[in-house]
Amino acid sequence: MHNLEAILAMGLVTLLCRATPFIFFMKRKPPAVLDFVQRYIPPMIMTILVLNSFKGLRFGLAPFGLPEIASALAVAALQLWRRNALISIVGGTGLYMLLIRVL
After folding, report:
1. End-to-end Cα distance, the chain
2. Are 103 and 62 in contact (CB under 8 A)?
């Protein structure tokens, strides 16, 4: 019963977080700071995540960071080619899983 209550509470909070901007800005234009947040925060967060994923690389030990770097390049190439985040993530993850098993 406790788990169900926790799930319902998290669902309600998520719904309210997503609905709040629509409720506040139904009748007026959002402030300029929200345009900045919408445009620049997602790339900044992705950059932090990518850099964080590379922090534990050991170039002195085999396979010398090859799976991570090859997978990151594959994700970038797939994203530039298809412009589809799901394809990029699945392709990069699949390549990484293959390379860590093979190398």
Report:
1. 47
2. yes
